[in-house]
Amino acid sequence: MSTSAGNTRTTDVSRRFGTVLTAMVTPMDERGQLDQSGAEELARWLLRTGWNDSVVVNGTTGESFATSDWEKASMIHSVKRVTAGTQRRVIAGVGSTDTRHSIELARAAAEQKADGLLVVAPYYSRPTQKGLLRHFEAIADSTDLPVMLYDIPARTGVAIAPETLVAASRHPNIVAVKDAKGDLVSSSWVMKHSELVYYSGDDALNLPLLSIGAVGVVSVVGHVAANQLRALTLAYRQGRVDDALRIHRDLLPVYTGMFRCPGAASAKAALRTLGLPSGPVRGPLTDLSEEETALLVADLIAAGLQTTLAHRPQVPEALARAY
């Protein structure tokens, strides 16, 4: 791969996906049903300042394992209503355990005008690398949308081998990787031997992944700290490594707080505290207790988060000052 070719691919993918992407929760109402108006409100809030370039719906944080195909399509539809006429993008998770089902989800996402697809390695079945490659290529063949593969073996039970990622990169629609493998050597090798564009899928490793060539993040903490993530990526890109390191260290309490419990439950608890649409999580997840929520709020305050959050009466005074 030539440097110029790699730079061209990176620029193109960054333009299509962006740099800072938040893996958005799926808001529910008090009965645990999909809150479509809440999804629009939350997407509008996440995208209000330009800190987030895109949102990812129907991913792990979106509880895709517990939502129906209709709910997934509705989430795309709701968020696209917010991004219509803007440069903001909606990336739809379409991963499942079944190739045929993933293809159906991909085509449904295309019908709802999603801007890209996130495809996690199929979980539970633990396919061979040959099976993984065929799975990814079949989904990529099913639409014209750009595909970001999601490598997170701790959840799926199977890692995407570096050679498989390089082979997948030869498909014109497979352009990026959300990397939550925690193996910087493997990721470096893939970046060297392919034109795949890397995004950090593990918030605590955002800066390390940027340092080896990632271009951005797909983040859970982007629900509450997208401005810091934007500042971190910009500082690193501009060569202000000390500034990027300072921001990384400032965010350590947020990383701890948001992942002390499952990310979807923590993100919803944080949003609930801020008076934003969230609702309960679906089983087998459980909502944070009052004690767990208090710990999370303390972590957010410890990080000294500053945003342009409008005044909301529901926000505790201490948290309001932090925000």
Describe this structure in words.
The structure is a single chain. With 323 residues, the chain is an alpha/beta fold. Helices cover 49% and strands 11% of the residues. It contains 15 helices and 8 strands. The protein has an 8-stranded parallel barrel, surrounded by 5 helices. Strand 4, helix 5 and strand 5 form a beta-alpha-beta unit. Helix 2 crosses helix 3. The longest helix has 16 residues.
Any descriptors?
15 helices; alpha/beta
In short:
With 323 residues, the chain is of the alpha/beta class. Helices cover 49% and strands 11% of the residues.
- Low-pLDDT runs of 5+ residues are 306-323
* Rg, Å, rounded: 18 Å
So how many helices?
A: 15
Structural class: alpha/beta
Secondary-structure element string: HEHEHEHEHEHHEHEHEHHHHHH
> In whole angstroms, how far apart are the ends?
44 Å
- Largest β-sheet summary: 8 strands, parallel, barrel
What is the typical, i.e. mean, pLDDT? Answer: 92
**What is the strand tally?**
8
Strand content: 5-15%
Q: What's the layout of helices and strands?
A:
Elements: H1 3-17, E1 20-23, H2 36-46, E2 54-57, H3 69-83, E3 89-93, H4 99-111, E4 116-120, H5 129-142, E5 147-151, H6 153-156, H7 162-168, E6 174-179, H8 184-193, E7 197-200, H9 206-211, E8 216-219, H10 222-237, H11 241-250, H12 252-258, H13 263-273, H14 290-302, H15 317-322
Parallel strand pairs: 1-2, 1-8, 2-3, 3-4, 4-5, 5-6, 6-7, 7-8
Helix pairs in contact: 2-3, 4-5, 5-7, 7-8, 10-11, 12-14
